[in-house]
Design brief:
By secondary structure, the chain is mainly beta. The strands form 7 sheets. A 6-stranded antiparallel beta sheet has the order 1-4-5-6-7-8, with helices on one face. Strand 11 and strand 12 form a beta hairpin. Helix 3 packs antiparallel against helix 4. The radius of gyration is 22 Å and the shape is globular.
């Protein structure tokens, strides 16, 4: 459900969206997809070969045509430099204060495969201090996506994340940094089969494609092994996260034609295109209901919510009668998903991972971020002293929507207050009211 810290918010699958939709990086963190989340996030080499060629995977097209999908895995002897254009983009992105400190020049090749628009190469770089790491991909010399994590700041028993995107087609990249006594990682699939991930210390990586992204055959568990091949740890995976676009698109529910379900179905289609088809299929379309409604000068702006498997929700936006306002102030296929996730016991104040405020419509904003530890509720306090409760809150993330009448001076949001189960104030963050305006 975006990743400062990879787990608490997985930053993976950045996808360009309309200027008025939520910040795509934050959205992907909040999706918390190990992509996946995206986030998301997200080793010793096998022999001395610089390049390890994986077994070919058969990909069956819509017309029943069969093509060959071959992945190259690179070993420690590989010396191919990272393209200058990719290095420049990584240097720009890696200035973010909440990401591990890695040098763009330190990125090395981990894997390569053919994507929709050309050859995709996956690069990785590890922090020299602590367990931080970042993985990025590029089509040729064009930067595609990046995911970062930290083995020292995660609740995962085996640190992992994933990458996917439009250019990946039906493929997913599953990866992580080796931690503790782990020297290799094994992937178990829904059908009981297993595969060893490729290793280029300190990274492990595996590219999923073909049958491995179809229901019944997707990855369901990670197994970390030591030098003696004994099991160090296991990590359950949410198999639907790794559902191919084609499989997910064919399984999207039809809906009943209501404005809420039509808005939600449009957003689920967006998730499928982004490579989050598993999350889209986890949404119970029949449980779509109105979460909040704002009366704006352009008409009604409605936020719909639907429950998702794995203890989460997705929200979708619609204008009057389920159509976008005439001025087109928001993208009709936009929305967001929030899934619960375990977090560590270390208190995380608002200031350490500041919430983001993004405009999703001409008169509507979303406030979203990391939920401080032990928080039971979050209150939005306005300039005039009025308060409202944040409607979506999980252990790992929260979201609130701001619209009329709280956009005018004197009534705008001024602070966020995190409250514990005993009613005690755990944290408080002052907001800049001038950020929101009609």
């Amino acid at each position: 459900m975006r990743s400062a810290l990879d787990e608490r918010l997985v930053r993976a699958n950045p996808v360009a969206t309309s200027a008025v939709t939520p910040d795509p990086q934050l959205l992907e963190r909040l999706l918390d997809q190990p992509r996946l989340a995206l986030t998301s996030p997200r080793r010793r080499r096998h022999g001395r070969a610089a390049v390890i060629v994986a077994l070919a995977l058969a990909l069956v097209g819509t017309a029943a045509a069969v093509s060959t999908f071959v992945v190259q895995y690179f070993g420690a002897d590989d010396r191919e430099p990272t393209p200058a254009a990719v290095v420049a983009e990584l240097e720009r992105i890696n200035n973010a204060p909440d990401l591990p400190k890695v040098a763009a020049d330190d990125f090395v090749r981990l894997a390569a495969f053919d994507g929709v628009e050309g050859r995709i190469t996956v690069y990785g770089a590890a922090s020299t201090v602590g367990g931080g790491y970042c993985v990025a991909s590029a089509t040729g010399d064009r930067f595609d996506a990046e995911g970062c994590g930290d083995t020292d700041r995660t609740a995962q028993r085996i640190p992992y994340a994933g990458l996917s995107g439009d250019s990946y087609g039906n493929a997913f990249v599953l990866y992580g940094r080796l931690a503790g006594k782990t020297v290799t990682v094994e992937i178990r699939f829904e059908d009981g089969s297993t595969k060893r991930a490729a290793v280029r210390a300190p990274f492990w990586i595996y590219v999923l494609a073909g049958e491995q992204t179809s229901p019944g055959h997707r990855p369901s568990e990670l197994i970390a092994r030591s030098e003696t091949d004994s099991i160090v740890a296991t990590q359950e995976l949410f198999a639907p996260d790794f559902t191919s676009r084609s499989s997910a698109a064919a399984r999207l529910p039809k809906g009943d034609g209501s404005a809420g379900q039509e808005a939600m179905r449009a957003y689920l289609g967006t998730l499928v295109r982004r490579g989050a088809g598993g999350l889209a299929l986890a949404v119970d379309l029949s449980r779509t209901h109105e979460l909040e409604r704002f009366a704006t000068p352009e008409g009604q702006f409605t936020i719909y919510e639907a429950a998702a498997a794995g203890n989460g929700v997705c929200v979708a936006y619609a204008g009057d009668a389920g159509s976008p306002p005439a001025q087109g102030s928001f993208h009709p296929d936009s929305g967001a998903c929030f899934r619960d996730a375990p977090v560590d016991a270390t208190p995380t104040p608002f200031a350490k991972a500041p919430p983001a405020i993004n405009k999703i419509g001409r008169y509507v904003y979303i406030v979203e971020g990391v939920t401080p530890s032990r928080t039971a509720s979050i209150i939005v306090r306005y300039e005039d002293g009025a308060t409202t409760a944040v409607p979506v809150i999980y252990h790992a993330s929260f979201a609130a929507w701001i619209g009329p009448p709280h956009l005018m001076p004197g009534r705008r949001p001024a602070a966020l207050v995190a409250v514990g189960r005993d009613g005690q104030v755990l944290d408080r963050l002052t907001l800049d009211p001038t950020v929101v305006s009609p």
